[in-house]
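Suppose a colleague, Dr. K., hands you the sequence of a protein chain of 80 amino acids and asks what its three-dimensional shape might be. Before reaching for any lab equipment, you can write down a predicted structure in token form. Begin with the sequence itself:
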Amino acid sequence: RTVSRAMGGSCSMPLAAYAQWDAGNAGNLRLDAAWGDPEGRSEVVRVSGYAPVGTLEQSEALGLQVTQALRAGGAPQTGS
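The predicted structure, expressed as tokens, is then:
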């Protein structure tokens, strides 16, 4: 949710984010995200983040880290 909010996500934005716990390392969360240009003018931006997460604040921080990586890869600077 943090990635979607920070990117200004909507039903028409080609954005995906998927989080899963690391089975071999309890408490660590991996967050994969992708953004595509709706006009098809650029490659899909794919990024991942990984961090120990035990609180809502830590999970939100991971989401913001992944959002920054999406933007660094070429996703638009929209949202908050």
